[in-house]
Amino acid sequence: MSGISSPKAHKKIGVAVISNPKGKILIDRRKSDGEMGGLWEFPGGKIEPGETVEECIEREIKEELDIEITVSDRLTTITHDYQTFTVTLYVHLCQYIRGKPQPIECEEIQWVDPFLMNQYQFPQANAKIINLLQQRGIKQ
After folding, report:
1. Residues 127, 39: contact at Cβ < 8 Å?
2. Residues annotated within a binding site for Mg(2+)
3. Where are the domains of the chain?
4. Which of 16, 51, 59, 100 is least enclosed by beta carbons within 10 angstroms?
């Protein structure tokens, strides 16, 4: 063995912080059998080649939750190193337009007040998003 490890995978993810008119944010719980199973997250997914972050977010939200949203300003970009991979989250504020959220690619869905998000267990990379939302108080 040479002792040289292969580089970690680097995942680039478009993330939606979807707010409703009441100021609540949509979160979903990951399927228990997958990576980071059972943890809560902000919906989104892998950015495909040739796709903008905004296109990725719209596509992923339609595929995973079957709702329509408007993608707005970027809230933040976070790069976080986990033990086996690195992730970069391109986080955008989004407005809910229509449709009833369906748990197509997740266990369950909740609309949550930003100040109550500490009651849910999220992956480490999401801590900064939650802090920013609590600082902003997300207003419509």
Report:
1. no
2. 44, 64
3. 10-134
4. 100
